Amino acid sequence: MTTTRFAPSPTGYLHIGGLRTALFSWLWAKKNEGQFLLRIEDTDLVRNSEDAVTAILKAFDWVGMSYDGEAIFQSKRFELYAQYVEQLLNEGKAYKCYMSKEELTALREEQMAKGERTRYDGRYRDFRGTPPEGVEPVIRIKAPTEGTISFVDGVKGEINIAASEVDDFVIARAGGVPTYNFVVAIDDALMGLSDVIRGDDHLYNTPKQIVVYEALGFKLPNFYHVAMINNEQGKKLSKRDGATDVMEYKTLGYLPEALLNFLVRLGWSHGDQEIFSIEEMIELFDPKNINKSSSNYNLDKLLWLNAHYIKNKPHSELAELLVDFGVDIREHSKKDLILNATKERGKTLVELAEQVNLILNAPTDYNAKNFKKAFKEDTPEILALFMTILKEAELNEVADYHKVIEAVVEQKEIGFGKIGMPLRVSLLGSMTGSGLDEIMAILGRDETLSRIEKAINELNT
RNA sequence: GACCCUUUCAUCUAGUGGCCAAGGAUAUUGCGUUUUCAUCGCAAAAACAAAGGUUCAAAUCCUUUAGGGGUCGCCA
User: Fold this and answer.
1) How large is the average pLDDT for residues A282-301?
2) Nearest residue to A203 via CA among A186, A225, A181
3) Distance CA A4, CA A23 (A)
């Protein structure tokens, strides 16, 4: 049975990098009809917050990913961890270390000066004398002193780390609170994980966790370390690079399916395929196709995907989504007409809402430049004829409006631009936008006439 | 500094010794469609980090160099 997990520490919002590793884990579990579990790593009592937990859950909800069973909170499992500390102490696999923080700092500085990798020197490993007074001990685990710690990473291949690189690290702080690498190994084992997919910033934690697995006699899961997502310049993603909070994408008008499609293709591929529905992702995902190297965030591609998903979304759903962006056309009789005329012009829901508003709301401000460009000497005459024909025309569908324009073009023997541009500026106040016949069909005869009249009046004042 | 990971067009990537004088996608440019913009269609330009090996044959294997990233906490 495939069991995966996402294990965020609740110190802030859900980051898109975190969402991608969660997505990989989720897909892998779904594909194998296994379990995807959620564990909240809140052992740092100072930094974690409940708000952060709800923020993370909200983001999961928005993208439509759900976890199996109840979320596990590490802060509620301290007793369990303490038992394992006790066990290791009794078995002589861990020991108390009375080194003070000052002594540790001094040791590190000395090692740094010698150009070595800093590590605890194991001075209390076999200590049997009287402990110094006034120092509350930490518990350290006995790591192997020689040889190599090896494991096979599902993404990077075989990883070998010399035992001399892994020191007797602290598993319980002074005061008894257990540390990250200790509890992660215990929980991953106890939760029955078969596959651990996480960021490659954890690569160096893996040998430490293996020390714990072995001391406790747990079976190792498969590890997959996924490279980071960098910004467009190839540097670490930071808040200055735009949206890093998953929920920001909602505000910016992205569709969750576009964001997931974007993220799944960052560091993973399936041949030449670019567009993946959620179902296809589940069917096709395999961690063996995860890339070894880091990838750069690429807004253009996200935008392209978002435009794609907007174009292909059912109108009823689009209308529903637009409500959050200040446009409510759910009950509008010409909803389909409106969306057909606009949805290819908005890469985000924000832009789509703008396009819809542009048509629905009569222009209040006619740009003088536009007027100058579009309105020539004979324009009022042309528009007058247009209105005359429009008043008498039979108008049932979009094409009927087009016929009106055609009639004017024929009678006046002019090009389409001669009537098109002034008409567009009159109706929208803009030189660009949806098709004129579509716009007029949405507005209807009366509103169309009124907007043209208004524009002509404006011109005369 | 030490250790570990990594390196194909601007970007995401295909590629596991011969199908590769390197394919797809985004972005860019041009053309076409369109009354405009957008969409769409077609086309162009654009890469194996460098140097040495191994081999009949290397983007693919080995070595070295260079660039990028990560880790060195009683944070997670």
Assistant:
1) 95
2) A225
3) 11
Please give the Cα distance from A112 to A114 (Å, whole number).
5
The pTM for the full model equals 0.94
Are the C-beta atoms of residues A265 and A36 closer than 8 Å to each other? no
Give distance CA A393 / C1' B8 (Å): 61
**Which nucleotide has the shortest C1'-to-CA distance from A292?**
B6
Helix (H) or strand (E) holding A4: strand A3-6
- A30 CA to B72 C1' distance (Å): 37
Say if residues A281 and A27 touch (Cβ distance below 8 Å).
Answer: yes
- Tokens 């209390």 map to which residue? A124
Specify whether the CB–CB gap between A247 and A55 falls below 8 A. Answer: yes
Between CA A15 and CA A8 the distance in angstroms is 10
pLDDT in tens, A112-164: 888 777 889 989 999 888 888 888 999 999 999 989 999 999 999 999 999 98
Going from the C-alpha of A335 to that of each of A49, A161, A310, A312, A444, the distances in angstroms are 44, 62, 15, 15, 14
Could you list the beta-strand ranges (E) of A184-317. Answer: 195-199, 222-226, 229-230, 295-296
Q: A99: which nucleotide lies closest, measuring CA to C1'?
A: B74
Q: Are strands A138-141 and A222-226 parallel, antiparallel or unpaired?
A: unpaired
Which residue out of A31, A76, A156, A239 is catalytically annotated? A239
* Residue A406 host element (H or E): helix A398-412
Distances (CA, A) of A152 to A207, A222, A352: 11, 8, 48
CA of A156 to C1' of B55 (A): 27
A235 assigned to active site: no
Q: Is A148 helix (H, G, I), strand (E, B) or coil?
A: strand
Give backbone dihedrals phi and psi of A458, rounded to 5 degrees, phi first. -60, -40
Per-residue tokens: A124: 């209390």
Q: Which nucleotide lies closest to A401 by the C1' atom and the CA atom? A: B35
Which nucleotides of chain B are near protein (any atom < 7 Å from a CB)? Answer: 1-8, 11-15, 23-27, 34-40, 68-76
Q: Can you read off the two tokens belonging to residue A289?
A: 């196709």
Do A405 and A419 form a contact (C-beta atoms < 8 A)?
Answer: yes
CB of A428 closer than 8 Å to CB of A373: no
Three-class secondary structure of residue A224 per DSSP: strand
**Residue A107 DSSP SS3:** helix
Q: What angle separates helix A416-428 from helix A436-460, to the nearest 10 degrees? A: 80
Q: Using CA atoms, how far apart are residues A338 and A332, in angstroms rounded to an integer?
A: 9
Strand order through the sheet with A138-141: A94-97, A138-141, A170-172
Q: What is the ipTM of this complex?
A: 0.94
